[in-house]
Write a structure and sequence with these properties.
Length: about 160
């Protein structure tokens, strides 16, 4: 499958950052459950559970504790290209069970930078402009930006 990466400003949110850690560590952080709690939600919120079955159709389930509110997120991987691309969505759960109210599909693109770091692009695709606007108001740029900063800091400790 060829992924169409043409962005639609009406429904997509995205940003690119350069991380001062090698790509293999960024990939490891995103794909091994023991690493997810260290970066996946902005502190002081917490990830309290992670289930990863890293294959197309495999689960990517997380549970957050946000100010005492437990939030369960179920999803599946749509594409897994080791150390290059990770696509997951909450539109389905494992077994291709459709979600009643899907929110988004996330696309992470990783590539090497000349200095040994990682070019990190995050794209959040939404089903309509209202959902995109809601995600932006929820703090997509600050929240996902904080997450990538936390990821970089954590991954540096793994080097």
């Amino acid at each position: 499958m060829t992924l169409n990466l043409e962005l639609d400003p009406a429904t997509d949110l995205n940003f690119t950052r350069t991380l001062a850690v090698p790509r293999h560590l960024v990939w490891e952080c995103w794909t091994m459950p023991e690493h997810i709690p260290h970066f996946f939600v902005p502190a002081p919120h917490k990830v309290t559970a992670v289930e990863i079955d890293l294959r197309v159709g495999g689960r990517f389930n997380t549970t957050f504790d946000v100010e005492g509110n437990i939030m369960e997120n179920s999803g599946v991987y749509l594409e897994v290209v080791p150390q290059e691309r990770l696509v997951f969505t909450d539109a389905y759960s494992e077994g291709w069970k459709p979600a009643s109210e899907p929110f988004m599909t996330a696309i992470l693109l990783l590539s090497d930078t000349p200095d040994g770091g990682t070019s990190y692009t995050a794209i959040a695709r939404h089903r309509n402009p209202d959902t995109r606007a809601k995600h932006e108001k929820m703090g997509f740029f600050d929240g996902w930006g904080t997450v990538v900063t936390q990821l970089e800091t954590y991954a540096k400790g793994l080097a």
